């Protein structure tokens, strides 16, 4: 068993932010990376098989509070000659392929910086998920398939109280984003050899109001000496039902709020909730490892 973690506090000043758009200075509980701790278990079962357990939680080191009242990752699994099967709250396939193939910050894909490519990963983590991961012996090809259960997570309880229950939408959105169950299905495939890496993934997510969100990503990178080049594309497309009743309009409103929160915040690009039904992102970047301690990089994003 391994107990691990990182504690990170930073001072940040951002221009054109704050109520008056005159700049905002603050201490944040995560500069290079979010503060977190975890437990990993890797138990040899013999015959080339082993049992796995992963628990991870996050905290705000600036004030000591926890980011969420539950574990961000919590899953168990079995790994053997034919791959690995895991069950629980895990990184989804879009997050896996982006961070392993064409992340803007390859030395720390989870760096607490502007990283809109992760905002395209539809929440990055998925609860109630089964994931099967496979690889060739030399790991030149790696792939994964996922499926998660919605467990009847829908808006019916709110619909029963319309119109008064409309005021409960913000709280409901917060609760379902905080570990709620959505039905998902998808997979990714990645190829890497001789410094090149190329990968793509697809995932369909059904939100509580019944909206299907199709998400695609494709990208690649190349490493040679201290140089790192990367490029990628991502798409999120929401297929809202045509509004033919008050209830359907309410369902779409809830789903728009959830989808918007996937993109909200400075780190994920700052798109606003409800600004579009279809979002695309193109990115290209270059990095140079000047010294073992200093990495220089420049990235261009168009959303």
Task: Give the helices and strands, then pairings.
Elements: E1 2-6, E2 10-14, E3 24-28, E4 36-46, E5 49-60, E6 65-66, E7 73-80, E8 83-91, H1 93-101, H2 116-119, E9 125-135, E10 141-148, H3 156-159, H4 169-177, E11 183-193, E12 196-206, E13 212-224, E14 227-239, H5 246-263, E15 278-291, E16 294-302
In short:
By secondary structure, the chain is mainly beta.
- Count of spatially separate domains: 2
The helix/strand series, from N terminus to C terminus, equals EEEEEEEEHHEEHHEEEEHEE
Kindly provide the radius of gyration, computed on alpha-carbon positions and rounded to a whole number of angstroms.
20 Å
- What is the structural class? mainly beta
Give the beta-strand count: 16
Can you characterise this structure?
- The chain is mainly beta and 303 residues long.
- The chain has two domains: 81 residues, no CATH class; 213 residues, no CATH class.
- 15% of the residues lie in helices and 49% in strands.
- It is built from five helices and 16 strands.
- The strands form two sheets. Strands 1, 4, 5, 6, 7, 8, 9, 10, 11, 12, 13, 14, 15 and 16 form a 14-stranded antiparallel β-sheet that branches. Strands 2-3 form a two-stranded antiparallel ribbon.
- Helix 4 packs across helix 5.
- The longest helix is centred in the C-terminal third of the chain and has 18 residues.
- The N and C termini lie far apart (42 Å).
- The model has no long low-confidence stretch (mean pLDDT 90).
């Amino acid at each position: 068993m391994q107990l691990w973690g990182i504690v990170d506090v930073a001072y940040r000043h951002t221009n054109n932010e704050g109520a008056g758009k005159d700049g905002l200075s603050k201490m944040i509980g995560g500069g290079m990376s979010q503060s977190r701790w975890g437990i990993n278990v890797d138990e040899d079962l013999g015959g080339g098989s082993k049992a796995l357990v992963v628990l991870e939680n996050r905290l705000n080191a600036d004030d000591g509070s926890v980011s969420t009242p539950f574990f961000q990752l919590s899953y168990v699994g079995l790994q053997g000659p034919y791959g690995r099967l895991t069950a629980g709250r895990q990184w989804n396939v879009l997050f896996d392929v982006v961070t392993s193939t064409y992340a803007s910050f390859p030395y720390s894909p989870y760096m607490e910086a502007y990283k809109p490519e992760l905002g395209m990963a539809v929440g990055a983590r998925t609860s109630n998920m089964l994931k099967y991961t496979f690889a060739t012996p030399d790991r030149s090809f790696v792939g994964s398939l996922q499926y998660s259960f919605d467990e009847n997570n829908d808006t019916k309880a709110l619909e029963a109280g319309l119109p008064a229950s409309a005021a409960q939408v913000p709280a409901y959105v917060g609760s379902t984003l905080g570990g709620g169950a959505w039905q998902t299905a998808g997979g990714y495939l990645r190829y890497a050899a001789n410094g090149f890496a190329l990968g793509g993934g697809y995932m369909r997510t059904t939100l509580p109001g019944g909206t299907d969100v199709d998400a695609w990503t494709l990208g690649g990178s190349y490493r040679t000496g201290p140089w790192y080049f990367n490029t990628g594309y991502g798409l999120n497309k929401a297929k809202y039902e045509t509004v033919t009743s008050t209830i359907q309009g309410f369902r779409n409103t809830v789903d728009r709020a959830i989808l918007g929160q996937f993109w909200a915040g400075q780190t994920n690009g700052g798109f606003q909730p409800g600004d579009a039904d279809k979002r695309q992102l193109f990115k290209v970047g270059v990095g140079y490892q000047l010294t073992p301690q200093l990495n220089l990089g420049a990235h261009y994003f168009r959303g």
